[in-house]
Amino acid sequence: MLQAVDTEHTADSVEWCPLEGCRRLLACGTYQLRKPEEQPASSEDKRAPDADEPQVRLGRLYLYSLSEDSCACPLVEIQRKDTAAILDMKWCHVPVAGHALLGVANAGGSIELLRLVRSENTYMLQPFSSFALEKQCLALSLGWSTGRASSASDQPLKVISSDSRGQLHLLKVTEAGPGLQGVATWQAHHFEAWIAAFNYWQTEIVYSGGDDGLLKGWDTRTPNTSVFSSKRHSMGVCSIQSNPHWENLLATGSYDEHVLLWDPRNMQQPLADMAVQGGVWRLRWHPFHRHLLLAACMHGGFRIFNCQKAIEEKQEAFTVSASYTLPNSLVYGADWSWLHFHFLPQTQQSLQLRSSPYSDPGARTADVVHNRKAVGQSLGPPSFDRLADHEGEGRTKPQSGGKGWTSVQPLTEDMKSSSRLHTPGTKICDGNRCLETANLDINLLATCSFYDHVLHLWKWDNS
Questions:
Q1: pLDDT, tens digit, for every residue of 312-354?
Q2: Which residues of 22-48 are buried (b: 16+ CB within 10 A; e: fewer)?
Q3: 344 close to 315: Cβ distance less than 8 angstroms
Q4: CA distance 290 to 306
Q5: Most-buried pick from 234, 248, 304, 325 (CB within 10 A)?
Q6: Which contiguous run of DSSP H or E holds residue 388?
Q7: Are 108 and 84 in contact (CB under 8 A)?
């Protein structure tokens, strides 16, 4: 682990910007319940709190930049904005009118688009467009139609969203005018529609998962009838992602603590089934390795799966390449960084090694404290509000750099190496021009969690 950041509120969404030139930027969203008795009272209002008064869902959006100048705390906060509670966020994979766009689904029942703008020597997110889904509902998720980096630029830019009343909402994005416009709304599930996502290869098709335990497919040209409805998951379906590298591959996750791989052409039976410890709230395919899948598994921490044999050799399960479980926390957000490390020419490598603080063995040993692995406790699949309202008894206050966590395994040289941002002989690059000289075995990822309200930055060496 490279860094632990206290987000103050419970954190549930973390997203790296995928656009070249902006890949050092990381957005984190939070969700916090405030009870009526915790509301700030005016001097004129001394009445006792009403037990029937609804709780307020508060949120905060953080924007961080990854700095190579700070070894101990590479993530530097550059903006924070108080908002309605945030349930999901995703960056658009293509620029719109020359700007990166971040989509946010919030507890006010709206989808908001924020535009990334340059401000002096840094970046800021500014409001671009907002669309109210329905009254008296929470916007639970959103997905962009742009997941494939090589998708045709002439395709219309679309957003699919789901809400707490079980509905799906198809929106289109225009560069001028209102920005977001409604296209279609339909009832998809009997209870909360936790997740909605596009088929990146055929963007007329969307998938949804609900608290009714159903996984469904929809053709947005005729949305009133589902293309398929699967009961293969035994509890609420809360994560779905189409693979951006393989055309006929879909991953789904559920409160039933299973990750399933599917061929969308045959939704009768999954290709593979992996049991995990914890409800699977978020799934992310790697931006460059088509067979690597990252899963946020709530009380089970996070897992990295290697799905290659399951896909190519038709094995019914896939292997776990890495897993981390943190105490007193529920990991809700997880995302791969699009940054990569590329090899320096030999002359630059020798200069870097001579100037590196880790050329001193004492400095290397002292930095081992940043690498931690710990064990959490087993919990059931509670509701989102109940999680946000939980006081987290006995939780450990996070500290920058990760002090306070304990290791349950001996620290190997590989683990020591993973506790610092730079690997000797490499440099971080945020453009595709470096891919030919990139060391794609070295990966950065971020996770965030409930209870302990922590954003974690991790470095993983897959070699």
A1: 888 888 899 999 998 889 999 999 999 988 877 754 444 443 4
A2: bbbbbbbbbbbbbeeeeeeeeeeeeee
A3: no
A4: 9
A5: 304
A6: helix 384-389
A7: yes
**Which residues have C-beta within 8 Å of that of residue 306, sequence separation ≥ 6?**
291, 292, 318, 319, 320, 321
Lookup result for tokens 């339909």: 186
- pLDDT of 42-98, one tens digit each? 444 545 545 566 789 999 999 999 998 766 789 999 999 999 999 999 999 999 989
Residue 38: pLDDT band with limits 50, 70, 90:
low
Q: Are 224 and 216 in contact (CB under 8 A)?
A: no
Tell me the residue type at 124: M
Rounded Cα distance between 8 and 6, Å, is: 6
Residue in 296, 367, 377, 368 with CA at minimum distance from that of residue 336: 296
| Secondary structure of residue 351 in the 3-state scheme | helix
pLDDT, average across residues 271-280: 95
Residue 426 and residue 441 in contact, taking contact as beta carbons nearer than 8 Å: no
- In which residue are the tokens 């198809």 written? 170
* Placement of tokens 């409160």 in the chain: 255
pTM value is 0.84
List, as one string, the DSSP characters of 17-84: --STT-TTEEEEEE-EEE-GGGSPPPTT--PPPPTTSPPEEEEEEEEEEE-TT-SS--EEEEEEEEEE
**Assigned token pair, 186:** 């339909």
395 has a pLDDT exceeding 90 = no
CB 130 within 8 Å of CB 105 = no
